[in-house]
Please model this.
Amino acid sequence: MIPDSHKDLLENAYPATVGTTMPDGQPQLTVIWTLYEGDVIKFSTREPSQKVDNLKQRPQITLMIIDPENMYRYLEVRGRAAITQEGAIDLIDRLAQKYMGRGYYDNMDPDRAQADRDQRVVVTIKPEHVVANG
Amino acid sequence: MIPDSHKDLLENAYPATVGTTMPDGQPQLTVIWTLYEGDVIKFSTREPSQKVDNLKQRPQITLMIIDPENMYRYLEVRGRAAITQEGAIDLIDRLAQKYMGRGYYDNMDPDRAQADRDQRVVVTIKPEHVVANG
Model:
């Protein structure tokens, strides 16, 4: 579903903005790292969190990546999110390698690292509607 | 409400991502130019459009600006949108000066410019909740 012309926006280590909906209907926007693989987009977050609460109520999620070199070139992906614990540690490490060039837990205090690992989840976005601009 | 530490993200000519909610509850994200003035954030769009339809149903709107130099520094602004026609042509020209260094209608075909002017509206976001990160 993602056109070849805009796949670089997901493949490069660019920030994405992801939108969920709060219980009162207000959009919540946060910045995430993305991994694009097998026609789905994955990101890592922790539970409990507002974002995960929002997705459990309404799995509808939308992602925006703007080309840092050209703001008129962007990709909006609307889809539904699935949340799983399986693969959560592997994913955050792969994302950290992509975005920081190192393991996520490298140099982290062991207690803090364990607490983080215990909360990590994978959010998988299955694209349903794509807008590729520019 | 916007902390001094993050006002530059609104003052510079950076793209913002703005989220509204579709009738079916799906977040809609688009890229906008912003003008920050008098404690409100203004942007320009056209009516009819999905974004304006969404805001007429649910005025809740959320904006995200990421520092292009540092993706861990960003500003999320949640608020409510008011839509007006007054000042719409002045605003799009000021935004074009800020982002492109020229008037918006310069060199535009006159018929196309008139059609665009007829549809221009101002969206004014009154911030209610701000997250400043980094």
